[in-house]
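step=encode ok
step=design start
structure_in=
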C-alpha cells in the first residue's frame, strides 16, 4: 500500500477480519478499505536510524552499531558488549 496513510485499523469479531481504512495520498485522497486475517504494523521506525551524540563516547576505542545493522551476535563472541536498548526495537536482542 504505497502512498497510503492508515486512518484506522479495527478487528471485527463477527467476520474475524481486520478492517483497515487508508487514505490514498497519491492524488485522490480517497479512503480505501482493506480486509485481512492478520495485521502487520510496519510503520518504518528503523528507516532513519538515529545514534545520539553521547559526550565522551569518542574517547573510547569502540564500534557503535544501530539495531538496524544488527544481523547476528557472532561478531560479538568473546567480547565485552554494552547494549543500550530503547523503544520498540529492544526485543530484537533477546
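sequence_out=
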Amino acid at each position: 500500500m504505497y502512498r497510503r496513510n492508515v486512518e484506522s485499523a479495527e478487528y471485527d469479531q463477527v467476520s474475524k477480519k481486520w478492517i483497515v481504512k487508508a487514505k490514498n495520498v497519491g492524488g485522490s485522497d480517497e479512503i480505501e478499505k482493506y480486509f485481512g486475517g492478520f495485521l502487520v504494523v510496519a510503520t518504518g521506525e528503523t528507516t532513519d536510524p538515529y545514534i545520539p551524540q553521547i559526550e565522551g563516547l569518542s574517547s573510547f576505542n569502540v564500534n557503535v552499531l544501530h539495531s538496524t545493522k544488527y544481523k547476528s551476535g557472532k561478531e560479538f563472541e568473546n567480547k565485552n558488549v554494552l547494549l543500550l536498548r530503547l523503544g520498540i526495537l529492544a526485543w530484537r536482542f533477546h
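step=design ok
step=annotate ok -> The chain has two domains: 4-36, 57-93.
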